């Protein structure tokens, strides 16, 4: 007599090991501390500093797409870039000549390809950097051009500078894998709308300083929260434990992260006719979980299984996304990047 095998028992999520959590906490700052970044202390306005950060990360994304790098690698590079700027200024002063934000971005991407084991040949990386910086995707670049050697030497020189600024701390857990593990835990990884909304949240967050304000796990949980709100699905509790406690995350931190993203993207018109994932997302940090309209306080039904789409290397999913033009500065004759 044949018996039906018992369904596999879900392993409850575990918090990060104490050593890993402590290492990540060293790179988490308050919003007031972000306003004390070296570039701002040296006289640049916070808006200007954020704009340069955004340009740098957009440079990483454009080069990464040209090299067909996965989003996890680009996310890691964005984290390296933002962490570097919490230790170093972009403004020149007597006795100090800063790296250009594109130089930092290119070097951060170079390091990230090693850390995430998605290494590309130096020639391929340099060619992509030159083409993105010059906004010419078809520009002929080879070892005979000045731009090639300037970019190559800059990346190799800046690698040690970046490593020292990061204290050789290369351990970064991209939130994409954590978010997908959360989807699988609740058996909703085939819910395309939910998955795409959460993915868009994470991709949009790369262009912000969210990685300096919250841990990777909190960002992953916030993306799931935002996606669930958009598609009007309620994540199930386990006994008396709400889902965020099961996932080892604080609801207040999730709310803070979502409010931060809503402040930046809520008014941005979407381009694909899809609902904006940030519209109506803002909520009181200490409010009740059901303080905004939700379909019903019950576990989510099992979604219809859909084929897995090919992951996109782009930024966002048309819901609050602002893609840049790949750069607005070029390499000068002196080997620097000029506006």
From TrEMBL:
One MF term in GO for this entry? cyclin-dependent protein serine/threonine kinase regulator activity
Q: Which InterPro entries match?
A: Cyclin-like_dom (IPR013763), Cyclin-like_sf (IPR036915), Cyclin/Ssn8 (IPR043198), Cyclin_N (IPR006671)
Q: Which residues form the Cyclin-like domain?
A: 58-164, 177-263
Biased composition regions of type Gly residues, renumbered to the chain: 315-327
Biological process (GO) annotations held by this record are: regulation of transcription by RNA polymerase II
- Return the annotated region ranges for Disordered: 273-339
Q: Where is the composition biased (Acidic residues)?
A: 330-339
Tell me the Pfam families matching this sequence.
Cyclin_N
Q: Which UniProt keywords apply?
A: Cyclin
Entries under Gene3D superfamilies matching the protein: Cyclin-like
Q: Which family does it belong to?
A: Belongs to the cyclin family. Cyclin C subfamily.
Q: What is this protein called?
A: RNA polymerase II holoenzyme cyclin-like subunit
Native organism: Bimuria novae-zelandiae CBS 107.79
């Amino acid at each position: 007599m044949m018996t039906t095998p018992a369904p596999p028992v879900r392993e409850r999520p575990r918090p990060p090991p104490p050593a890993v959590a402590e290492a990540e906490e060293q790179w988490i700052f308050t919003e007031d501390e972000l306003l004390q970044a070296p570039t701002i202390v040296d006289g640049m306005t916070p808006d200007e500093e954020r704009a340069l950060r955004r340009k740098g990360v957009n440079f990483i994304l454009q080069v990464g797409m040209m090299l067909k790098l996965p989003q996890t690698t680009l996310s890691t590079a964005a984290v390296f870039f933002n962490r570097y700027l919490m230790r170093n200024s972009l403004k020149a002063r007597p006795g100090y000549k800063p790296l250009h934000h594109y130089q930092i971005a290119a070097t951060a991407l170079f390091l990230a390809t090693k850390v995430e084991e998605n290494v590309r040949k130096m020639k391929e990386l340099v060619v992509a950097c030159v083409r993105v910086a010059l906004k010419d995707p078809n520009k002929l670049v080879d070892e005979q051009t000045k731009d090639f050697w300037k970019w190559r030497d800059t990346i190799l020189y800046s690698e040690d500078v970046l490593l020292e600024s990061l204290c050789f701390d290369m351990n970064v857990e991209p939130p994409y894998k954590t978010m997908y593990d959360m989807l699988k835990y609740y058996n909703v990884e085939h819910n395309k709308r939910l998955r795409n909304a959460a993915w868009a949240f994470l991709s949009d967050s790369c262009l912000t300083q969210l990685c300096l304000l919250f841990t990777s796990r909190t960002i992953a949980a916030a993306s799931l929260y935002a996606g669930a709100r958009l598609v009007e699905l309620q994540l199930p509790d386990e006994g008396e434990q709400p889902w965020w406690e099961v996932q080892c995350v604080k609801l207040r931190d999730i709310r803070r992260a979502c409010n931060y993203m809503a402040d930046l993207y809520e008014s941005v018109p979407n381009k694909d006719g899809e609902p904006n994932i940030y519209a109506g997302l803002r909520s009181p940090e200490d409010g009740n979980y059901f303080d905004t309209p939700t379909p019903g306080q019950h576990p989510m039904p099992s979604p219809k299984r859909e084929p897995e789409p090919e992951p996109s290397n782009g930024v966002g999913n048309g819901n609050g996304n602002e893609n840049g033009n790949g750069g607005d500065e070029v390499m000068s004759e002196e080997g620097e990047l000029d506006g």
